[in-house]
Amino acid sequence: MANDKMWAGRFTKSLSQVADDFNSSIHFDCKMYKQDITGSMAHAAMLGKQGIISAEDSELIIATLGEILADLNEGEIDFDMTAEDIHMFIEMELTKRIGDVGKRLHTARSRNDQVALDIRMYLRDETNDIIALVKKLIGAVVKVAKENSDAIMPGYTHLQRAQPIVFAHQILAYGMMFERDITRLEDAIKRMNKSPLGSCALAGTTYETNRDMVAEKLGFDGVTLNSIDGVSDRDFCIELQAAYSTLMMHLSRLSEEIILWSSWEFKFIELDDSFTTGSSIMPQKKNSDMAELVRGKTGRVYGNLLATLTMLKGLPLAYNKDMQEDKEQIFDSVETVKKCLEVYIPMMETMKVLKDNMYKAAQKGFINATDLADYLAKKNVPFRTAYKIVGTIVGECIEKGIVLDEMPLEAYKAHCADFCDDLYNEISLETCVAKRISKGGTGPDSVKMQIEFLEGICK
């Protein structure tokens, strides 16, 4: 029938089944049922207070919406997948229960501002959940750092052994990245936290509404100040997806390190059996599949960001149906990020650090060469001259198959008379780490300060 839709009054034909299926969004926007009902309850309260509908009708609508919410939460009713979207489903269910009174709910609002409200509330809730997970991940990083503040390993540049550091310093670098991720997400929430409800289709309403009352009830910091922008803005979707993408990039970088560190070539760490998989043909294999999946899923989140940007780039104001496409993309990003964090936290907490292997790797590769050059520079040898001398010494050690610690003092003196027997203490790995006293470095006091900073974040 032509009147099977709430908007069907102007039409003489029913929507074709194929078009109806193509147009419908309830199979994914049903995720927002809590936000839709909560927003509608606040709207109904405002309509009653303003005298736009009677107080009795307002109270009945609010009470019935509460019942619908409870029934959905408890699985007493199912979503009607023939409904066009979650907004129409809730309104139809309300009208089915209380008749014409339910039809008053949509006074002074449009689906345009309703959906804009719901998506903001949903993303605010989900992003706060993500922030809580990131804090737990930082807690796992801090735990690993505390247990490995004395675990000396080679630090790398260009994936070549560079200078000695402690493993705590390396892993805390990711903690700092995750701390910045939290601030990005919090900033995005601040900019998003304005209520668009009351913008209606695009031009506002002739009713004397109180948008500020609704915004306050729903936990917003205020209202959108331009009704056209209120219904057409999806900047927050882009900003959040950019923040999600950055978070996933950090997880992916850490995943790459974990994959390398757990390989036989490095063997710096061992992942717990509960977060690894085996091979169908090679019985010796222990694969870091969780880290690999996180690395792979990063591209998925990037793709959702690009898809949203592309969808929005040519849209005129105000609302267009194209904007329905924002939800599947950002819902997928939210779900992907949460799943990655949920597996990462216990994977980090159960990871075994192989300190002896790290130390043995640090003994090779001449990673104390900079310290040897600094040793000469502190004896008033110009650093560039010291650099060249040490480079020559390294070359000689390579030819002889020894490391700097094994080269005799006489051989050192042949290159520069300023070498004394105290050089061996100066180039020991423990000394190299301990004397990195600059703020933010790998020295003990700095690492302790970094741990204390991140502990404050994850509380």
Number of domains in the coordinates?
3
Percentage of β-strand residues: under 5%
CATH superfamily grouping of the largest domain: Fumarase/aspartase (Central domain)
Strand order of the largest sheet: 1-2
Question: How would you describe the overall organization of this protein?
Answer:
- With 459 residues, the chain is mostly helical.
- It has 3 domains: 15-107, Fumarase C, Chain B, domain 1 (Orthogonal Bundle), CATH 1.10.275.10; 112-143 and 165-358, Up-down Bundle (Fumarase C, Chain A, domain 2); 365-458, Orthogonal Bundle (Ribonucleotide Reductase Protein R1, domain 1).
- 62% of the residues lie in helices and 4% in strands.
- It has helices at 17-23, 26-29, 33-49, 55-73, 86-98, 100-103, 111-147, 167-192, 211-217, 227-232, 235-261, 289-312, 325-349, 355-362, 369-377, 383-400, 409-415, 423-426, 429-434, 444-458, and strands spanning 152-157, 160-166, 269-270, 352-353.
- The strands form 2 sheets. Strands 1-2 form a two-stranded antiparallel sheet. A two-stranded antiparallel sheet has the order 3-4.
- Helix 7 (111-147) packs antiparallel against helix 8, helix 8 runs parallel beside helix 20 (444-458) and helix 12 packs antiparallel against helix 13.
- The model has no long low-confidence stretch (mean pLDDT 94).
